Amino acid sequence: MRIAIPDDYQDCVRSLDCFSKLAGHDVRVFHDSVKGTDALAERFADADAIVLTRERTRIDAALLDRLPRLRLISQTGKLAGHVDVAACTARGVLVAEGSGAGSATAEIAWALALASRRRLVSEANRLRQGQWQGHLGQQLSGQRLGVWSYGRIGRQVAGYGRAFGMQVWVWGREASTAAARADGFEVAPSREAFFAQSDVISLHVRLGPQTTGLVTADDLARMKPTALMVNTSRAELIAPGALEHALAQGRPGFAAVDVYEQEPVLGAQHPLLALPNALCTPHIGYVEKDNYERYFGIAFDHIVALAEGRLTEVVNPEALAHAR
Question: Is 263 a catalytic residue?
Fold first, then answer.
């Protein structure tokens, strides 16, 4: 089979142990990112299967119509609305997905909180520039940590906060807050209090039509001048331009983000990168070796199953009857 793997930014997929599962297949790995139907159609023209790294590449009906050979889209991790599954089904293209991540995203959220509070990046840079101490950081112990959404990652971050001696409370939907209560965590009395009284807020909400723009300019304006907003989930959870404006106004006083509306961000072309009170990393939350072995290992298993005529675990089983 001819297999295309786009958006391998770090040129690391071939170095994974699980890559050996594709031995004997014709695999093309692309390290850059292209946009638009024409560019993607040219790139995937000969592909029988495409392995998608999360939602870095969008697959829609117009692109599918240009890919007559395509039989399978094998998604690393869970689908997030970037693949038109109905269009795939109508054309006999199978779609398979994997499982969620481990603890890598929760760990990067915590690393960003620690680095921001103690000004680790700026202090390390000062030392390299021949200077000594320049900022007075703050410890996390004793501060109020607000976790929005108590799912798999939110639960891990709340646990980190508890271990570091923080006062942890949770906000989110009723099922989320009920699970947090059951684990002994406090639930914020109101959305307004959650933003106004938290010293650190970490977002762990799934992006969807109901959650796009979930965090508003008014929410951010309620935060303390000393507060920190951490977003390792999705940039679109915050209203467009609201975080940049809020940081310029000083509420919250600091932000740490790992996600952006359009990725990859090249040439430092994002307004947050120009702000001294923003710590920005290039969406590395889930980009970690053990995660990748799990993500790509499952994706490659689906390809092997297709090649051997035994693939049944797909998100569109109705396409099996007329699969290409």
Answer: yes
Q: From the candidates 236, 263, 293, 313, which is the catalytic residue?
A: 263
- The pTM score is 0.91
Alpha-carbon span 243 to 259, nearest angstrom? 12
Give the separation between CA 301 and CA 298, rounded to whole angstroms.
5
Report the C-alpha gap between 96 and 238 in whole angstroms.
Answer: 30
The percentage of the chain sitting over the pLDDT mark of 90, rounded to a whole number, equals 94
Tell me the per-residue pLDDT of 81-139, one tens digit each, with 9 for 90 and over. Answer: 899 999 999 999 999 999 866 799 999 999 999 999 999 999 999 999 999 999 999 99
Question: 2-101+288-322 in CATH: which number?
Answer: 3.40.50.720
Q: Where are the domains of the chain?
A: 2-101+288-322, 104-280
For the question of residue 204 being annotated catalytic, the response is: no
Which among 234, 270, 294, 302 is annotated as catalytic? Answer: 234
Structure tokens at 135: 């900022």
In the set 119, 204, 222, 283, the catalytic residue is 283
Helix (H) or strand (E) holding 52: strand 49-53
Written out in words, the top-level CATH class of the domain with range 104-280 is alpha beta
Instruction: Check for a shared fold between 2-101+288-322 and 104-280.
Output: yes
- Residue 80 is predicted with a pLDDT of 82
pLDDT band at 54 (very low <50, low <70, confident <90, very high): confident
Which tokens hold the place of 204?
């762990």
Structure tokens at 124: 């390390």
Q: How many CB atoms lie within 10 A of CB 73?
A: 28
The average pLDDT across 219-238 equals: 98
The yes-or-no answer on residue 152 being catalytic is no
